[in-house]
Design brief:
The structure is a single chain. It is elongated, with a radius of gyration of 38 Å. It contains eight helices and 19 strands. The protein folds into four domains: about 5-170, no CATH class; about 185-255, Immunoglobulin-like; about 255-325, Immunoglobulin-like (Sandwich), CATH 2.60.40.3070; about 325-400. By secondary structure, the chain is α+β, with helices and mostly antiparallel strands. The strands form five sheets. Strands 2-1-3-4-5 form a five-stranded mixed β-sheet, sandwiched between helices. A four-stranded antiparallel β-sheet has the order 8-7-10-11, with no helix packed on it. The chain starts with a helix and ends with a helix. Strand 17 and strand 18 form a beta hairpin.
Amino acid sequence: MPRKTVCLILLLSLSCLLSASALRAGLAASPSADWAEPVLTSFLTLLPANDELEELNRTNAEKKEVRDAEMHIHSDLAAERETDYVPQEYQAYYLSDPAWEIVSLSVEEDFLLDETMLSYYSLRDELDLIFVFTASEEGALSYAAVHVWCGGRTETVFDVLYRTQDEEELPLQILSALAARFDPSLAVLDLTSYPSCRLFTQDDSEIPTASGYAFVPSDLDAVRLSAPGYEDLELSLDFSSGRSYSVDAEPAALETGEVTVTAYPWGTEASLFALPVASLPLTTSFQQSSVLMTLTSPGFAQESIQLTPQQSFYSVSLKPQWMAEDGRIESSKDEMYRSMRNTLLSFGLYVIMSSIQTIYPDQSAWTGIASGFAAGISVLNLADFIHDMLAYYNTAKQVYL
């Protein structure tokens, strides 16, 4: 294939969209910064779609596509055969699954901030950016810093001298600094004092959480926290004094309710949250304002009851299936009777029209038409009656047999 054609194919491939690629973040850290990977994991988990990171990802994908195309074309020319290189389509990194991945780098501590070294690792491991965590401890005082290498340069986004005993406060401070660097509209919510909670806005939209932290819009003024075994907490937010907010409210445990449930017939199966739990009678406890229990037994209609801590005993009698279906039978029977009535009326009309035609032969022009019309309606109504009668029979057989 001529070189001009090959070059044209290469240019066309670059103009096409490239393949979806997870964001690849390098992690280089001092040995004493053992908290670095959990913090970076939380940050990447919580950060919403970001234009800057997408641009980095796209640019690196384009460069990789050029390298792959050049290598492929070179090998094809060397073998003197036509190239079959097909460019791939690109989608934003956050549409990939997974959306990101962390690549741990083994970098000597003395070279953690060496841009030449970081550039080498970026090219070797096809990284979009590199996070560098440095830390040192000098007795009662410690130092920590976070740097970001992207676009060929390194910038410091966080550094602090702190008391060693206060190390547990570092994740919140670092997440705040990283959020400010990549999306200034975000603030950080510290939920570590509220165990296993889920976070919701006032319109019940859920906000993602990771390791007890959440990123929220800095202009958000209220959220709702929900955790198993605890009452929901309505919380007012105020980020006017900083980019983070720590929830220090004491979660209120829900009252434990203990109830006994019996049912007829004996051996009725009970289910909670759509999961079978036991046969009745049973005694159970729960930590919620109310719980929906579903009762089932062969040959009986299913029934649901709402259990509350305020009532300690429930006794339920399930209705036999035929009783629960009684309304269905009545409906089917009514349909049959309605069809029978219509059939009798239409046949009666046919008989009357036929009699008038016989008595007054001089009126046969219109009585004949009316008689024929009545006969047709009668046949249709008879067909409906037979259909509804069979439907009534089948319904009764299903319910009673």
